[in-house]
């Protein structure tokens, strides 16, 4: 996993138990079946075969057998393969391959609750609220509303609209809640945006009614 616009670290997981000299190895990384990301040819980095979008964006740490992918973007998500060949009696022989799946993460803004109507609230009327968060990746799972009064908290689900920016590929999300106005009791309403196991959840500032 890598944060958007940060450096992603992709490991070859090559133990090099034989302590083979890098000058006897050809190391190359590719994405999918066709794109060459990085190539070290018997100790020398060469750029002739690289896919254009990776030129000047990669560095290989030969001590850790790890590729650094600079300024990782959402389009860089996907499966990468590290292939190592040994120069054996002149003809190269593959001695190691490994795969690495890259996921990009971008932080969502803290969810914010907004009123969707004007005028004075009267008991037993309907209260319309929205909760919005923006600029995140990947797509969120769902949104839960927490309605707390006295010593009790209800968890409610409402509809959630998700849109993706065509240029940045980042997601914006808005959830809606429609409940009756509580009577004679202080009520706090929060919304909780669920982002999946890796990223956890984001909680809004509570709205007091």
TrEMBL record:
Family matches, as InterPro entries: Ig-like_dom (IPR007110), Ig-like_dom_sf (IPR036179), Ig-like_fold (IPR013783), T-cell_Activation_Regulation (IPR051713)
Keyword Transmembrane helix part of the UniProt annotation: yes
Ig-like domain ranges (all copies): 1-98, 111-191
Primary subcellular site in the record, as a coarse category: membrane
Membrane topology, record value: Single-pass type I membrane protein
Compartments where located: Cell membrane
Alphabetically ordered keywords of this record: Cell membrane, Disulfide bond, Glycoprotein, Immunoglobulin domain, Membrane, Receptor, Signal, Transmembrane, Transmembrane helix
One Gene Ontology cellular component: external side of plasma membrane
Protein name: CD86 protein
Lineage: Eukaryota, Metazoa, Chordata, Craniata, Vertebrata
Gene: Cd86
């Amino acid at each position: 996993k890598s944060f958007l616009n940060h450096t992603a670290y992709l490991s070859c997981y090559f133990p090099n138990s034989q302590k083979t000299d890098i000058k006897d190895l050809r190391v190359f990384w590719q994405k999918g079946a066709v794109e060459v990301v990085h190539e070290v040819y018997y100790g020398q980095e060469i750029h002739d075969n690289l896919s254009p979008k990776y030129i000047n964006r990669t560095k290989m740490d030969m001590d850790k057998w790890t590729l650094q992918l600079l300024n990782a973007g959402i389009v860089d998500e996907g499966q990468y393969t590290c292939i190592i060949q040994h120069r054996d009696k002149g003809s190269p022989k593959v001695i190691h391959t490994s795969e690495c799946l890259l996921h990009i993460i971008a932080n969502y803004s803290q969810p914010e609750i907004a009123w969707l109507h004007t005028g004075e609230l009267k008991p037993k009327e309907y209260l319309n609220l929205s909760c919005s968060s923006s600029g995140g990746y990947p797509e969120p799972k769902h949104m839960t509303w927490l309605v707390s009064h006295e010593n009790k908290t209800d968890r409610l689900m409402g509809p959630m609209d998700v849109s993706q920016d065509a240029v940045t590929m980042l997601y914006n999300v808005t959830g809606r809640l429609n409940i009756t106005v509580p009577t004679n009791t202080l009520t706090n309403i929060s919304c909780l945006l669920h982002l999946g196991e890796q990223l956890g959840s984001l909680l809004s500032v509570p709205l007091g009614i």
